[in-house]
Specification:
five-stranded antiparallel sheet; Ubiquitin-like (UB roll); 58% strand; Immunoglobulin-like; eleven-stranded mixed sheet; single chain; 0% helix; 326 residues
Length: 326
């Protein structure tokens, strides 16, 4: 039986999107809030993804075109005053404008201090570390958070996506130095979440008796590997069909769909299909796009079994999956 790739023109390549990031950090009860963003000669308007980082929310990242200027404002929470910028800007003017480059995320930080210093707890948070590796689009890493606090406190340390719910929560009882180390992978994150590249927010809050610990928020960016990361890979009977865990017996076409979380930086992509016995069917070049579709077809029914599909960026294996046919 002859198995071949179904006909159809390969769509042109889509270059990976060029983006610049601004990552916000907050010390104390207050917030950094987006006001506007603009490139040279353009009208100033709120960024598509607004920063609302602090007591008003944990959206501590915005993604804009490189060279865009982002204007933010420091807003103290109840009982707190703005004490100045710790990164990105200087001084105590509550409005700040930073230029987002493309080489590395632009850090932005603000500090807020309590008006009544007699009923407060002093906390110092060191820069958290999140180291991650990716193999076949599966990420795993280690989070380290440490610091010190001036009074016996019950602390809650959380890892989040910007504007998202907690992916990981750790509770610590500490007076003086404290530290946590947590393994990050599928199975340790809430509801089976996977570790993907991108921005994360670490929050530290808590109580020392009846006194609240000043909020601490830190943003971290995890870069994507050059081969990119696939968010979802699934089989289907057609390009536009719904995902299926097992294709029905008698199908004449079988498709493997790869949806990227981050596109590869490499130019050359290939998709290889293998018979259930391991023999190579064919390897075809694929255009670099956010969604890559690859299929096989036959004049008659495709034999039952587990067909293997490998997607590669250059020599690097991005994702391997099995297409099962009854």
């Amino acid at each position: 039986m002859h198995i071949e790739a179904p006909g159809g023109a390969e769509p042109p390549a889509d270059p990976p999107p060029s983006a610049a990031l601004v990552l916000a950090n907050v010390d104390g009860n207050g917030s950094i809030v987006s006001v506007s963003s603009a490139r040279r000669g353009q009208e100033r308007k709120p960024p598509a993804q607004k920063i609302k980082c602090g007591v008003f929310g944990v959206a501590c990242e915005t993604e804009v075109q490189p060279g865009t200027s982002v204007t933010v404002r420091a807003q103290p929470g109840a009982g707190y005053v703005f004490a100045g910028w710790t990164a990105g800007c200087r001084g105590r003017a509550r409005t700040c404008t930073v230029s987002a480059g493309s080489a590395a995320p632009q850090p932005l930080g603000a500090k807020f201090e309590p008006k009544n210093t007699r009923r407060t707890v002093a906390i110092k948070l060191r820069n958290p570390q999140l180291k991650a590796t990716f193999k076949q689009s599966e990420g795993r890493g280690t989070l380290r958070v440490s610091g010190s606090i001036s009074a016996l406190s019950k602390l809650r340390i959380e890892l989040r996506r910007p504007a998202g719910g907690p992916l990981l929560t750790r509770r610590v009882r500490a007076a003086g130095a404290f530290a946590i180390r947590a393994l990050l992978k599928k199975g340790t994150l809430v509801r089976g979440a996977r570790l993907f590249p991108g921005a994360f927010v670490i929050s530290v809050s808590g109580k020392a008796g009846s006194v609240s610990v000043p909020l601490q928020l830190r943003s971290i960016f995890v870069p994507s590997p050059r081969e990119g990361v696939v968010r979802k890979a699934y089989a289907a009977t057609r390009r536009t069909a719904k995902p299926s865990s097992r294709l029905p017996k008698g199908v004449k076409e079988a498709w493997a769909i790869f949806r990227f979380q981050t596109q590869p930086a490499a130019d050359t992509l290939t998709a290889s299909w293998y018979y259930p016995d391991g023999r190579l069917v064919d390897t075809v070049p694929k255009s670099n796009r956010p969604v890559i579709e690859t299929g096989i077809g036959s004049a008659g029914a495709i034999p039952s079994g587990a067909w293997k599909v490998e997607l590669r960026a250059g020599a690097k294996l991005v994702k391997k999956m099995s297409v099962k046919i009854r």
